[in-house]
Amino acid sequence: MTAHVLDVRDGAACTALVDSLVAEHGPPLWVVASAGIVEPGFFLEQDAAATLAQMEINFLGTTNLVRAAAPSMVAAGRGHIAMVASAAGLFGVAGYAGYCASKFAVRGFAEALRIELAAAGVSVTVSVPPDTDTPQLAYERPLRPAAIAPFAGSGRSLPPQVVAAHLVRTAERGGFLSAPTAQLAAIARMQGLASGIFARVQMRLLRRSKP
């Protein structure tokens, strides 16, 4: 196993690293985009830099990694792309406007990309976990606005191993949305019904357009 330090905001650096790994090991079978930060605070009370940082790392960082890795996967005709969004990518949470925006963006990106890559044999799965026991959660909790803390912290947090295992199981069976609790799964099903229908219609249109 090897590890590399990378700033996912740097698209050129993402491409250079992925290209070197592909040259050494071949196209990846799995790509997991999970880099993310959260800066709680009411939108009008926060500096604009907090919103920008969350969008750059959470959303654009995800697109930078996928843009670097996907071409070799498409050329190989196989692979899984997994992205980590959040329960806050399913519904808005006061005090988390920038974070919600970035995670909604990840989910929307994943929904569109799974349509575009389906015919190439590359599947896309997105995780929408609740609070997960990580150093990021430990940083976030004391910064939550007191007025919203009873809602934002109402559910139990999950071990990262549980979230990761659910994501892998979902991807391996060809699922799109990985919601690792019963409550989130119910919310996701309600929201996903329409998007699933729209996705199938678009996939058929793309298949018909192939020469």
UniProtKB/TrEMBL annotation:
Keywords: Oxidoreductase. It is an enzyme of class 1 (oxidoreductase). Pfam families: adh_short (PF00106). GO terms for biological process: 3-keto-sphinganine metabolic process; sphingolipid biosynthetic process. GO terms for molecular function: 3-dehydrosphinganine reductase activity. Its EC number is 1.1.1.102. It comes from the Bacteria. GO terms for cellular component: membrane. This is 3-dehydrosphinganine reductase. It comes from Xanthobacter flavus.
